[in-house]
Design goal:
Jelly Rolls, 1 helix, four-stranded antiparallel sheet, 41% strand, 8 strands, elongated, single chain, mainly beta
């Protein structure tokens, strides 16, 4: 039986807690692609907030981001990003990389499990 909180219809509400001591701040600019430190293998979702617009990729230790084919992340938006729903996927997606087209910023990352 689920230990998740329940709504008025007694259906579970999926809520992931923030992993203790697992917040990261990643400065980025338009000069290079910047990568986070490795996420815990138990993490299924990361929540991110950026002070500047950027382009991101999720991947292994070789992941890089670029302003041509990477995913766009606008400034000032808090979003959740799935790292995969099974162990194989989580083992292959352990980092986030970010870069910018013409500005700088800080990417705030919270690991969720």
């Amino acid at each position: 039986m689920s230990k998740q909180p329940r709504d008025d219809g007694n259906d579970p509400i999926p809520v992931l807690s923030y992993r203790v001591g697992a917040g990261q701040q990643l400065y980025f600019d338009f000069n290079d692609s910047y990568r986070s430190t490795a996420f815990s293998p138990s993490v299924r979702v990361i929540s991110v907030y950026s002070t500047g617009a950027g382009f991101f990729e999720i991947g292994d230790e070789t992941v890089t981001a670029n302003s041509t084919t990477s995913h766009y992340l606008p400034a000032g938006i808090y979003i959740d990003i799935s790292l995969g729903s099974d162990i194989v996927a989580r083992d292959n997606y352990k980092y986030i990389a970010i870069t910018s087209l013409d500005n700088e910023g800080t990417l705030y990352i919270s690991e969720r499990e």
